[in-house]
Amino acid sequence: MPGNIYVQSRARPAQVRALEGLAVQSRVVRALLLRELHTRFGRDNIGYIWAILEPGLLAVTVTILHVASSSRTGLGLDPVPFWVVGYTPFCMFRFMVLRAEAAIESNKTLLYHRMVTLTDVALARNFLELASAIMALVILVGFAWLCGLGNLPDRPLLMMSGLGQLWLFSFGVSLLVTAGAEASTIVQRVVHPATYVCLPLSGAFYLLKWVPHSVRDYLVWSPLMSPFEEIRMGQFGTFDSAYVDRPYVIGWSLSLMLLGLVAMRITRRRMHLE
Q1: pLDDT of 60-105, one tens digit each?
Q2: Which of 129, 178, 228, 260 qualifies as a cystine partner to 203, CB 3.0-4.6 A?
Q3: Alpha carbon of 175 to those of 17, 140, 262, 269: distances in Å?
Q4: Which helix (DSSP H) or strand (DSSP E) does residue 6 occupy?
Q5: What is the pTM of this model?
Q6: Total of domains in the chain
Q7: What's the pLDDT score for residue 1?
Q8: Which of 201, 207, 181, 148 is nearest to 264 (CA)?
Q9: Torsion angle in degrees (nearest 10) through CA of 14, 19, 130, 269
């Protein structure tokens, strides 16, 4: 009996310390997010509004081009929300990957603080991209609905599920890019064109059922395809996809995140703070 009491007395403080550590890191990520928001958007003329306008303007431009060219989606899907819910999430993926290469350099001075880690910096920056994408989707889809150009999401939870899976995958890729960019300038040069290569592999502009079988058999292996199919299932209640594979996407995401965290740990050990 005394032995059990002794074990419990030692186990409880360890659990308390873990919770306290989690609380501290949560506050660190929140502070870094606010700093990133202010640094990136707070000093511009339109301030924080640009956090929403940046992905929104790109999505609107692409949508106008498709509508002006009389591009049709088929299956009774309204073209405006179709393009909006496709390109806005892709902007999130692209921004997360592109901006990852400068994550260390722009936050290097903060790493003098023992409680600030590279993972905290990455989380803060990528949470900001997620929030910007969600707000842009809400505003653009809502505006299209008010103008009679489309419907509100029929299955919003399904849309958020697809967006969440895309964010997890993008986060894993961004960790590898952050570590790689610190180790070699080649990564910095390759990342930008690589994001354009990912565009036709993402399904941002099309559905898999539109693609010939000979090509579709290869495209389904892209972990970007499933989230976009699920996002459109959330937007359009009349559309269901047979190509949504959540375990496949989550497996890819967790694998990339694990590799990214290891790479970030190695990078932090090799860094020389100036």
Answers
A1: 666 666 565 555 555 667 888 888 898 889 989 999 999 888 888 8
A2: 228
A3: 27, 29, 9, 15
A4: helix 2-37
A5: 0.84
A6: 1
A7: 47
A8: 181
A9: -40
Give the per-residue pLDDT at 158.
94
Give the separation between CA 274 and CA 272, rounded to whole angstroms. Answer: 6
Neighbour tally for 131: CB within 10 Å: 15
C-beta separation of 129 from 95 below 8 A? yes
Smallest Cα–Cα separation from 151: which of 242, 207, 73? Answer: 73
Polymer length of the chain: 274
User: Tokens standing for 4?
Assistant: 């059990």
Per-residue pLDDT at 261: 93
Cα separation, 32 vs 36, in Å, equals: 6
Question: Is there a contact between 122 and 152 (Cβ–Cβ < 8 Å)?
Answer: no
- Number of other residues whose CB lies within 10 A of the CB of residue 175: 27
129, 40 Cβ separation under 8 angstroms = no
Low-confidence ranges of the chain (pLDDT < 70): 1-12, 14, 17-18, 20-21, 41-76, 272-274
List the structure tokens of 165.
């899976």
How many other β-carbons are positioned within 10 Å of the β-carbon of residue 149?
Answer: 16
Owning domain of residue 36: 2-270
For residue 183, the one-letter residue type is: A
Sign, CA torsion 173/177/183/184? positive
Q: Which helix (H) or strand (E) holds 85?
A: helix 79-100
As to burial, measured by CB atoms within 10 angstroms (0-12 exposed, 13-18 middle, 19+ buried), residue 261 is: middle
Residue 192, amino acid: H
Is-contact 171 257, C-beta < 8 A?
Answer: yes
Q: At 272, which amino acid appears? A: H
CA atoms within 13 A on the CB side of 100: 34
